[in-house]
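The pair is quoted verbatim as follows:
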Amino acid sequence: MTVFNPNSPDSNLEKELHLPLAWNRNFFSVGMTVVAFVLTGIALLPLFAIIWSITSQGISGLSLEVFIALPAPVGVEGGPNGFANAIVGTLTMVGIGAIISIPIGILTGIFLCEFAAGSTIANSIRFVTVILSSVPSVIVGVFAYGVLVVTTKQFSAIAGGFALGVIMIPIISLTTEEALKLVPVSYRLGSAALGGNKFQTTLKIIVPTAIPGITTGVLLAVARAAGETAPLMFTALFSQFWQEGLMSPTPSLPVLIYNYASSPFPEQNKIAWTASLVLLLLVLITSLLSRLLTRRKHQ
């Protein structure tokens, strides 16, 4: 048991720790807090400006009609005017991209963290994955165009989904690896002590524990893919009608926004603002879901 001695060096240190800070240190601390608060507000200003512009311009056109009707021809007034085909096309191609990228991305992350950690091949794969994550999306679109569109001689939802899948793979693999690294080593040691081999420990202990983090990475990749425009212009093209199948030109929200925003007709400009609002809501909802899963993981 430690006896308190007021004359000991530790006692003097404790007294010094409880003394109030000098005025100049308080002034510096408050000043830096104010500077950090102001700079944070400046950094967030573009985001709030974008949200305000899209909301104020697009909210007036938001109605049930935009979710169930096709785009009206230019000059036709009074009829239904929406972009339901673009919403369905976006969901279709993001779904195809998710089907391609989720298994590849998760298995790559598991391999990097659990089966090849620290090895030369793992470092090489991680290096390539990081480079792939920074490749401009237009380059991915050109790559998908050369692989599928030129081969099949057809713009299609499959080609668009393939391009989105290539964009999603590095995001999912890197976030999966980071989620697996957060699993305590004691879990692995406990499983090994009970006789579990590497495969059983990974499949039944490590991956289930990291599911919230892995899901967060998947949702972030989906949100990124949903807003991509350039790859879809090279692969899925666009259509004013419902898609006829997975091997036909497919409309999407980003391409619709690009086409209608540059249109000389005001009614199409208005639809572009409303489509931007819908796309923004889809991305915000996906990001909020990932945040909720992250919060549950830390709880």
Notes: The mean pLDDT is 88. The longest helix spans residues 23-58. DSSP finds 13 helices and no strands in the chain.
